[in-house]
Structure to design on (346 residues):
């Protein structure tokens, strides 16, 4: 089968012909991949930017962790899954043996593996995964939209971390796919104003607006973040700021537009250290919280939304490509000219 792999710690990926996965072991299934999205983390791995050195010892590895598909084979001791079932798959694989998992927080497991990063993922026709990570979805579900489940869950979790509630003014820094997912999740929670902010980001801000942003700001227009927010709010600060840029300066700027007692949820992966006025943050009783990944309850909520409100998330998909055109998809993502690129192995 053709697979997109990271084979060495340098720029780029390779398209390789590799064997299909072996028969599933006990507790595992083989998923025939139907649709898989190129994530921002895949782009970072493609460029081999800082923050992904942990993968070095696992290379070569098949990338891809945002996917949907159909069960192709079932191992022993698997209950509730049958060949032909449509599924989405949680990419995090917790050990379920450590103290953290025993506390009921497997998403924080220190031994966690991740499909597409530390073990072979879904940029291929088939992938072997633990059955426990598979969530069945209705057979009639659009599997391209289902491949958006993982990034939408990351956005939903970021809104959990930021404690977004009805009536809030929420500022989303960064209009990439995670930022767009945050916008949608904030609107589902009843936020009255959701302001998406980018830099030279006209195309992605347009998608953010389609996902529910009430206002969009492109800082390339020559205004500061604070000026742009205050023009919209009449000088009032934001209740919640959610950072999804990966640029360290956005933490400093985000605190400057956040109300006293407000929460800044950081969802971006940063290659540089952030610098901000800690004393000012403490005096303002502001909080900075890390928002990474998602939990099973996010998946259950988002699947329900995709099944019942498919058109509310469809704007995220910019294009669909065959797996052998993955390089084109990466180039489009690097150019920031698209939102979500879906690869199809068929």
């Amino acid at each position: 089968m053709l697979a997109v792999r990271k084979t060495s710690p340098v720029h780029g990926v390779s398209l390789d012909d590799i064997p299909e996965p072996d028969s599933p072991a006990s507790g595992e299934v083989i998923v025939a991949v139907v649709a898989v999205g190129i994530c921002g983390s895949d782009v970072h791995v493609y460029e081999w930017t800082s923050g992904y050195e942990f993968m070095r010892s696992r290379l070569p590895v098949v990338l891809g962790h945002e996917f949907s598909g159909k069960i192709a084979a079932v191992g022993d001791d698997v209950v509730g899954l049958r060949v032909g079932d449509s599924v989405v798959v949680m990419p995090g694989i917790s050990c379920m043996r450590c103290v953290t998992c025993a506390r009921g927080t497997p998403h924080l497991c220190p031994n966690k593996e991740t499909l597409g990063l530390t073990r072979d993922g879904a940029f291929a026709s088939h992938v072997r995964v633990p059955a426990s990570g598979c969530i069945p979805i209705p057979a009639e579900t659009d599997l391209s939209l289902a491949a958006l489940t993982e990034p939408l869950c990351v956005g939903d979790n970021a809104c959990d971390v930021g404690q977004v509630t009805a009536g809030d003014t929420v500022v989303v820094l960064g209009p990439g796919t995670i930022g767009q997912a945050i916008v949608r999740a904030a609107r589902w929670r009843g936020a009255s104003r959701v302001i998406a902010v980018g830099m030279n980001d006209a195309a992605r801000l347009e998608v953010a607006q389609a996902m529910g942003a009430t206002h969009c700001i492109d800082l390339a227009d020559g205004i500061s973040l604070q000026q742009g927010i205050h023009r919209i709010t009449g000088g009032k600060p934001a209740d919640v700021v959610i950072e999804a840029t990966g640029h360290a300066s956005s933490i400093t700027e985000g605190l400057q537009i956040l109300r006293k007692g407000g929460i800044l949820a950081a969802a971006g992966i940063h290659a540089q250290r952030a610098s901000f006025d800690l004393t000012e943050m403490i005096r303002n009783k502001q909080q900075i919280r890390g928002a990474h990944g998602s939990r099973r309850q996010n998946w259950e909520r988002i699947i329900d939304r995709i099944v019942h409100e498919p058109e509310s998330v469809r704007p995220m998909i910019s294009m669909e490509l065959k797996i052998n055109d993955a390089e084109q998809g990466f180039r489009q993502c690097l150019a920031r000219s698209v939102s979500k690129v879906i690869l199809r192995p068929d």
